[in-house]
């Protein structure tokens, strides 16, 4: 029986659903796994808990840009779930420092005055990722009908998730898209936020304590129309202590996207707060997030282009890869 985890709306904004967010953060964590055999068969160490029974139907790795995402069907949610891997640089500190200097440098198509960050836009729109995701969603809908689409990701994966949710709504006429991101950076200006909020209202951005990435690229309140701007709805997780007792607060923020009483009320200076949400570890297990591991059992499901990009695909409800027989072996290391 499907869990009732639908967002409700008030004033055009999504109402926060704790259960759904704590489920989707596990998908955002699992997509970091580099063992494609375990990820494709959903037997990896992060492929458990609230995501048990999920079936991946498309797993795509853009090795040129060290990007990864999957599309699958969660029958308990009665939804298609799409997840994107986050920050891929070997040193997250270097990536964070670079974000301080990012500029709005791309006009978003069909939205007057809307500008976005070229790198985040490119990661979704101009790589192997987008066509594979769109085709997988179409295949799933042909079999399961017009079920919900839930898009998630952490860090840069959250930025990609937002662009994906917007793309599916605007260019592929999906009317039931929900986006939940974790530790997402800002991706566009106030004009972009205005369009996005109207087109994809079922959106929640979860931020954690002093997460540094949620503060980047910087927002300048004196130049609100010219600078980067977050879209709503933000939910800020922080802790309050009373003596030896520590309480977790999940604050639902206002509809501005830049609520001064939420994450903007603190100094965003913590990488460790960026790497754990709801007690779930996010990011790669090792230092080499771009390393790919896969064994011969996936040959029947995989295709590889001239650039080395990998696509693993199967029809929903097809047989699951047997994980008991042989270990996976690395096929590529970047």
| DSSP summary: helix tally | 7
| General shape | globular
Q: Structural class, judged by helices and strands?
A: alpha+beta
| Arrangement of strands in the largest sheet | 12-11-10-9-8-5-4-3-17-16
Residues in helices, as a percent range: 10-25%
Q: Give helix and strand order, one letter per element, not per position.
A: EEHHEEEHEEHHEHEHEEEEEEEEE
Q: Round the Cα radius of gyration to an integer and report it.
A: 19 Å
SS strand fraction? 15-25%
Q: Mean pLDDT, nearest integer?
A: 88
How many extended strands? 18
How can the largest sheet be summarized?
A: 10 strands, mixed
Oligomer: single chain
Low-confidence stretches: 1-10, 319-334
Distance between the termini: 42 Å
Explain this structure:
By secondary structure, this protein is α+β, with helices and mostly antiparallel strands. 22% of the residues lie in helices and 25% in strands. Helix 6 links the parallel strand 8 and strand 9. The N terminus and C terminus are likely disordered.
Keywords for this structure?
334 residues, alpha+beta, 10-stranded mixed beta sheet, two-stranded antiparallel sheet, 7 helices, globular, disordered N terminus, disordered C terminus
In short:
The chain has 7 helices and 18 strands. With 334 residues, it is an alpha+beta fold. Strands 12-11-10-9-8-5-4-3-17-16 form a 10-stranded mixed sheet, with helices on both faces. Strands 1-2 form a two-stranded antiparallel ribbon.
């Amino acid at each position: 029986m499907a869990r009732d985890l639908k967002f409700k709306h008030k004033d055009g904004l999504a109402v926060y659903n704790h259960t759904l967010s704590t489920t989707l953060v596990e998908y955002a964590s699992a997509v970091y796994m580099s063992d494609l055999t375990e990820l494709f068969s959903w037997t990896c160490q992060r492929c458990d808990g609230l995501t048990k029974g999920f079936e991946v139907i498309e797993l795509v790795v853009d090795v040129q840009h060290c990007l990864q995402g999957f599309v699958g069907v969660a029958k308990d949610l009665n939804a298609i779930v799409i997840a994107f891997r986050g920050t891929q640089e070997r040193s997250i500190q270097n990536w964070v420092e670079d974000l301080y200097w990012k500029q709005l440098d791309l006009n978003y198509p069909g939205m007057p005055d809307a500008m976005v960050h070229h790198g985040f836009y490119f990661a979704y729109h101009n790589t192997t990722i987008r066509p594979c995701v769109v085709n997988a969603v179409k295949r799933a809908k042909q079999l399961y009908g017009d079920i919900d689409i839930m898009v998630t990701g952490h860090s840069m994966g959250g930025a990609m998730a937002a662009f994906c949710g917007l793309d599916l709504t605007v260019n592929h006429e999906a009317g039931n898209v929900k986006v939940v991101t974790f530790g997402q950076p800002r991706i566009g200006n106030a004009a972009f936020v205005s369009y996005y909020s109207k087109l994809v209202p079922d959106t929640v951005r979860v931020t954690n304590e002093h997460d540094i990435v949620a503060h980047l690229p910087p927002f300048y309140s004196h130049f609100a129309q010219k600078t980067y701007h977050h879209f709503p709805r933000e939910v800020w997780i922080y802790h309050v202590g009373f003596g030896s007792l520590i309480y977790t607060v999940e604050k639902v923020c206002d509809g501005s996207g830049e609520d001064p009483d939420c994450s903007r009320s603190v100094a965003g200076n913590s990488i460790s707060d960026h790497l754990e949400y709801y007690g779930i570890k996010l990011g790669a297990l090792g230092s080499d997030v771009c390393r790919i591991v896969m064994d011969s059992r996936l040959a029947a499901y995989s295709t590889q282009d001239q650039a080395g990009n990998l696509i693993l695909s199967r029809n929903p409800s097809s047989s699951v890869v047997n994980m008991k027989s042989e270990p996976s072996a690395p096929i590529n290391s970047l």
